[in-house]
Protein: Lipoprotein
Organism: Chitinophaga silvatica
Amino acid sequence: MKSMLIAGCITAAGLTACNSSTESKTANTFGEDVAFLKQHLQNVIVLTHPDGKSQVVVTGDYQARVMTSTTGGNDGKSYGWINYNLVSAHKLNPHINAFGGEERFWLGPEGGQYSLFFPAGKTFEFDNWQTPPLIDTVHYQMTAHSDTSVTYEQSGVLQNYSGSNFPVKITRSVRLLGQVDINTALGFTLPQGVTAVAYETDNAVTNVGDSAWQQQNGLLSIWLLGMFRPSDQTAIVAPFKGIENAKGYITDDYFGKIADKNLLVKDSLLLFRADGKARGKLGLSPVVAKSGAGSIDLEHNTLTVLFYEVVPTGSYVNSKWELQKEPFKGDAVNCYNDGPLADGTQMGPFYEVESSSAALPLKPGESLKYRQTTMHFEGSKEALQSLATQLWQLSLDDVQHFLNNK
């Protein structure tokens, strides 16, 4: 269950090889981010709510990726982390192109005998690791577009480490949500004075080959990864089931044990510092993972929450870089805080919240489908406290105390 992946970005050994010195511009507005993307990319779509304030920007150039969003129109905060240097370089890197974006579409597993990132017979080392072009550099074709939604498709063939081929069609839709949709998804009415932006993505992988996909040959999972802007007053919040031995299903030492000051296990919540200053990664097994991971930024009075499906008995692919004893005992949810490597280089700073689907055997023509909803809220401390209480039974005073523990 311990992937060598840096929260879906790159390995520790290859961080500088991927893109050295790529700290993106800070404090830019949504409008500035959109103008930058339109300057450097060909296919940039801005989805806009009728109120003109809630907006999301998507690009087919980067596999139908949601690059960023805002609650406040062009002058509003921009939530997604964008790798300005790499986007503006107009050239591709070996191994991976970490363009950023607050929700990107990937497929797993990364490592193991069913890996999509290593060719057959090669050792599990960074030099042999390659993100498949279908989820890294291939442009996706737009098939539908309205003011508040956009749909893309792309097809290709993937081969895993064991030599199994997967002819696939990928379909991905992004839809901006309105106030009624937001209240319905939350299960309660937003407090007064809160501004919001929310979108859902519907993701499907269809077997377009002539033979069935079977577990003994490897399966695919849909993997959604979000890169967000950190601050000294931001904490990731990850709910989990408070069952007996719950900690045994939580991995907190992917890159060495996370320091106590950066991680707090409180009741059935994990609080994880998201300041972009100390690398660490968490993984939650589907046995304990719950929908609703997100973050709170007390510096900017914002709260983020993601909703996704967790199947406790599902087969979740294992991305550890080795031949595995349990290739379908992977994580359902991951969280990552970026930070400098030993040599001082750093890709970000950013933090990540990720979710994965369970893997399914598919007959020809069948599809694996996975939906995720991302919501950002801005408001007063009182309003955010109301949200945090209803979402997580969490006190902002407890978050502040945790973040002040340095």
In short: The longest helix spans residues 381-392.
